[in-house]
Amino acid sequence: MKLARNSTAWISVPMFLSAALAVAGHWYMTGVALAGFVFMIFFHRDPDRLPGGEGMLSPADGKIIQATPQKITIFMSPSNVHVNRAPLDGVVRDIEYRKGTHRPAFMKRACKNQQNRMHLETDDGDMELCQITGTLVRKIICYVQPGDQVSRGERIGMIRFGSRVEVSIPCGYNLQVHMGDKVRAGETVVAVRSS
Description:
Elements lengths: L7 H16 L3 H17 L12 E2 L4 E6 L3 E6 L6 E3 L4 E9 L16 E8 L2 E9 L5 E4 L6 E2 L4 E6 L2 E6 L4 E3 L6 E2 L5 E5 L2
Antiparallel strand pairs: 1-14, 2-3, 2-13, 3-11, 4-10, 5-6, 5-9, 6-7, 7-11, 8-10, 12-14
């Protein structure tokens, strides 16, 4: 199983803790630590994805909690893959980090949480992708820098332990998803160019 970048420390701590507790004979605590180890491997999984169809791809796994012609918001539960991907080919113009609150990511007020705002220049116009943390751990990992060229479906970052991603829809694109839809990063087409 492929794991997300920079996940070794998160996985190795419960692994070594499990071993130490087992050697010490603390079987109940060993079981708890092993459960933590399994969860960390599950959470940090990073499966390969093949971009689906033509059009703008979902930047995140999860559930659509807002869908307008201008923007979609995706909530990622702890069971989702948390690696984010580029919706379209483009160039990273800038990345703006903002400090903020730590409300649950599914709430509307979570738009004021800690976040990374990434501006992409695409052939169809500029778009903004916003990685927003939730209440736990609140760590955003960005794989790209200003000036980088990104390909549709390419990995661009990760958010740890419950979060959301908001992405703007370029002019001339028609929304293909609705509230409540389940989407997969780098696979699900969320908007297509109007003919």
